[in-house]
Predict the 3D structure of the following.
Amino acid sequence: MTSRARVIVLAGPSGAGKSRLAERCAKAFGWPTLRLDDFYRDGDAPGLPLIADGANAGLVDWDHPGTWSHEDALAALEQLCTTGATEVPTYSISESRRTGSQRLELGGATRFCAEGIFATEIVEECRRAGLLATAYCITQHPALTFWRRLTRDLREHRKPPLVLVRRGLALARAQRQIVRRATAVGCRVATGDRAFTELREARDQEGDHAVAG
């Protein structure tokens, strides 16, 4: 596979600042963003994993990678790296379904960010294929992550408020496990500010080709 661009994978807990970091990189460096969460499966797709216990038992477990189309996300990422453009879905989290699609183009950039809660699922494949520039697990204190995630999800009406609160508490308890999974596949743990500083320093020192995993 011939690669013309390489990906900076941003993994980590929901609400930790992955999207915020990707936006900063887009503004500062011109690196486009592939939103991996847009590759969620529709809420009525057969075989979606369900929450087994707790107050939200019986609801779709949207934090399980089985609710996400790994194959479609990886195919889009590979096409971006090799051709500089791809068609990506637009997904409504509040409606739990795809609502359309749009074309994502790199515009000549040789780096782009791919961020999402299932980003760890593609790190090893990207590395083996020679597509990975570097990978980060963006994290911060669980209490801050919980508050930022809840504030965002309520503002965007992602799910009913009680569901969001219960989900947030469960994710706060699972944050260490999420970080361990990310480090196991080679992600560097950092806050969004620290990761941005490192990416900027690498780029400033050696240019656009500086970021290497």
Notes: Strands lie at 6-11, 33-35, 85-92, 97-105, 111-115, 132-138, 188-190. The helical segments are 18-29, 70-83, 120-128, 142-155, 161-184, 192-206.
